[in-house]
Design a protein that fits this description.
Radius of gyration: 41 Å
Strand order of the largest sheet: 3-2-5-6-8
Shape: elongated
Mean pLDDT: 80
Strand content: 5-15%
Number of strands: 8
Largest sheet: 5 strands, antiparallel
Order of helices and strands: HHHHHHHHHHHHEEEEEEEE
Structural class: alpha+beta
Distance between the termini: 34 Å
Number of helices: 12
C-alpha cells in the first residue's frame, strides 16, 4: 500500500505544479513590472527637475539636453533585460491559490468515494501463495473486514474455519454468507453443518428448519443430505442414514474422493441395522440421471463469418438459480450441425446438476478465443423441463452481447 500512496503523492505534486508554477512566474513578472514602473517614475521626476532648473536659468539649453540624455541612459540601463509584459492583467489571483489548496482534499475525497483502495489491498494481500491454512484464514479474516458485503469471502472463511475444526467460528461466517446470498440452499447446508458440529452433534429445531429450507429449494443439496445421514447415524436411525447417503452417492461423480467414504458409511449403517433388528435393509435402486438432447446448428448467414476451429459451447443453466451452467459440452464449428446430450454426468459441480432444478434454459455460444463466458455468436433457447424427453433445437444466429 505504501507504493500506491507514494505514486499518488507524486501525481498530486505534478498536479500542484501545473497550478503553482504559473502563479510563481506571474509574481516574478509583477515584480519586474513594478521595478520598471518605479524607474519610469524616477525618470519623469528627473526630467521635471531639469526643466525647473532650466526655467530658473540655472541650466543652459545644452546642459538641459545633456541631463535628459543622461536620465534616458540610466532608465535604459535599469530596465535592460526586462521581459515584455502582456496586456495589463491581475497577477497572483486568489483563484489558482484556492484551487491549489483544494486539489489534495478534493482528490483524496473523490478517491475515498469512488476509488478501489479495498480491491488494491486485497489484490496485494492475495498476490502470494499462503504458507499454511492459518495464514490463509488470517487473510480471509482481513478480506471480510475490508469487504463485509461479500458472500464469497464469508463462505471461504467459514470453509477455512471448518478445515481447522473451528465449527463455532464457522457457523456465524456461514450465517453471514446465507443472508448476503439470498439464502442459497448450498450455503444453508454449510451453515447447518457448522451448527451441528459446534453444538456437540445435537439435533435442534433450527437445524431441522435449515435442512428443510435447503432441500425445498434444492432436493439434491449435497451438504444437507450428508448432514442428515450423519445425524441419523449418530441417533441410531440407520435406515434414514442409508436413505440420505444413497441419495448423496447418486449425485457424486465416480471419481469423487468422498464417494468411497460415504459408501463405507452406508455399509456400516446397514450392518448396524442388521445387528440391532436382525433384518437386512432392502437395496435401493440408483437414482435416474436426468439428460436433455440438444440439436445445435449454425445459421447460413453466419457460415462465412466463423472459422472451422472456433469453439462451440452448449450448456444448460437453471431458470431460477445460480448463473453458473449446470452442464456443458464443447464442440467445434466444423462439427455443426450436431446433436449432443447434456446430463447430470456433465455437471460442473457435484451439488449443481440438471436434476436439481425443475426448469433449465439451453444455450449455445461460439467463442473464437475459447472463453465459455464470452464469444461472438449465441443461441438462447426457451425454458424447458429438466426431465424433458423431447430433443431441443438451438440455431446460432445472434450476436453475443450478453454475459452468461
Amino acid at each position: 500500500m505504501i507504493e500506491f500512496w507514494l505514486c499518488a503523492g507524486l501525481l498530486l505534486l505534478a498536479a500542484l505544479a501545473f497550478l503553482l508554477i504559473p502563479i510563481l512566474r506571474g509574481r516574478k513578472a509583477q515584480a519586474e513590472e513594478d521595478r520598471t514602473a518605479l524607474n519610469v517614475t524616477l525618470y519623469q521626476e528627473r526630467l521635471n527637475e531639469l526643466q525647473a532648473q532650466h526655467a530658473a536659468g540655472a541650466l543652459s539649453d545644452q546642459q538641459l539636453a545633456d541631463g535628459r540624455d543622461e536620465a534616458a541612459r540610466e532608465l535604459l540601463a535599469d530596465t535592460e533585460g526586462a521581459q515584455a509584459l502582456p496586456v495589463q492583467r491581475r497577477l497572483g489571483s486568489a483563484i489558482p491559490l484556492i484551487a491549489a489548496v483544494l486539489v489534495p482534499f478534493v482528490g483524496i475525497g473523490l478517491y475515498m468515494h469512488w476509488g478501489a483502495q479495498e480491491e488494491i489491498e486485497q489484490a496485494r494481500l492475495f498476490a502470494q501463495q499462503p504458507k499454511d491454512i492459518q495464514e490463509m484464514t488470517e487473510r480471509l479474516e482481513i478480506a471480510v473486514k475490508m469487504n463485509p458485503e461479500s458472500p464469497e469471502s464469508w463462505y471461504f472463511l467459514g470453509r477455512a474455519y471448518m478445515a481447522q475444526d473451528r465449527a463455532a467460528d464457522a457457523a456465524p461466517a456461514f450465517e453471514k454468507a446465507v443472508n448476503l446470498a439470498n439464502r442459497a440452499p448450498e450455503l444453508l447446508g454449510q451453515w447447518a453443518q457448522a451448527l451441528y458440529f459446534a453444538g456437540d452433534k445435537k439435533w435442534t429445531d433450527q437445524l431441522q428448519s435449515l435442512s428443510d429450507e435447503a432441500l425445498k429449494a434444492d432436493p439434491n443439496e449435497a451438504t444437507t443430505l450428508g448432514l442428515l445421514g450423519i445425524a441419523a447415524f449418530e441417533e441410531g436411525r440407520y435406515a434414514v442414514a442409508v436413505e440420505n447417503w444413497q441419495k448423496l452417492v447418486a449425485l457424486l461423480p465416480a471419481e469423487d474422493p468422498s464417494r468411497q467414504a460415504i459408501e463405507g458409511g452406508i455399509q456400516r449403517a446397514r450392518e448396524q441395522y442388521a445387528a440391532e433388528s436382525g433384518e437386512q435393509l432392502p437395496a435401493t435402486a440408483p437414482a435416474a440421471v436426468h439428460s436433455l438432447t440438444v440439436r445445435v446448428a449454425l445459421a447460413d448467414e453466419l457460415k462465412s463469418k466463423v472459422q472451422a476451429d472456433d469453439t462451440v459451447f452448449v450448456f444448460a443453466r437453471a431458470v431460477s438459480g445460480p448463473p453458473m451452467p449446470l452442464a456443458v459440452k464443447r464442440l467445434k464449428v466444423s462439427e455443426l450441425p450436431a446433436e449432443v446430450t447434456l446430463s447430470d454426468n456433465d455437471a460442473m459441480m457435484p451439488d449443481m446438476k440438471i436434476s436439481g432444478f425443475a426448469q433449465v434454459q439451453l444455450a449455445a455460444r461460439i467463442s473464437r478465443s475459447g472463453n465459455a463466458t464470452a464469444g461472438e455468436w449465441v443461441a438462447n433457447g426457451p425454458a424447458v423441463a429438466s426431465d424433458s424427453k423431447e430433443a431441443q433445437n438451438l440455431l446460432i444466429d445472434t450476436a453475443d452481447v450478453r454475459q452468461p
